[in-house]
Amino acid sequence: MVDKARLAQWLATLGIHPQGRDHPPVYTCEQATALMGDLPGMRVKNLLLTESRRDRVILLMAEESTSVDLKRLATALGCRRLSFASAELLERHLGVSPGAVTPLALVNDAERQVELVMERRVWEAEALQCHPLVNTTTWVLPQVALQQLLGALSRTVALVEL
């Protein structure tokens, strides 16, 4: 699994040099907002969801204040039922622990088992705040850098309205 230092090195090879800050561990959007209030970029929540009947794993990115209705989202994605992934699944698929879920963790999904789903307004934001695989640092990732990262990982994004 890639760690924060190796992630930064790999991003640098792509010409991506995110800025941000270190901080005490955060586990909720509220905690992050209290510490990152003046950091630029949209604050997002990242949820790893599963549809167990089909072994489907979905990384959902939504603006931090968006209310996520799992039943509605399941219908929009053609799923029967969605639930939150366990800490074990987070570690297995993305190499992160609770509180550190991030689109940057897709670098650890070598088998490309995790689908990326984004709220449309997150995709359209100029920049996003995200953790670099740990919940003790927040980086600002410009949208163009996110697109470049996803291209380098050969990943697509499904956009949804929440």
UniProtKB/TrEMBL annotation:
GO molecular function: aminoacyl-tRNA deacylase activity
Domain of life from the UniProt record: Bacteria
Gene3D superfamilies reported in the protein's UniProt record: YbaK/aminoacyl-tRNA synthetase-associated domain
Domain YbaK/aminoacyl-tRNA synthetase-associated: 23-148
InterPro entries tied to this protein: ProX/PRXD1, YbaK/aa-tRNA-synt-asso_dom_sf, YbaK/aa-tRNA-synth-assoc-dom
Transmembrane segments: none
Pfam families assigned to the protein according to its UniProt record, in alphabetical order: tRNA_edit
SUPFAM superfamilies: YbaK/ProRS associated domain
Family indicated by similarity: Belongs to the PRORSD1 family.
Full protein name: YbaK/aminoacyl-tRNA synthetase-associated domain-containing protein
Species for this entry: Aeromonas diversa CDC 2478-85
Lineage per the UniProt record: Bacteria, Pseudomonadati, Pseudomonadota, Gammaproteobacteria, Aeromonadales
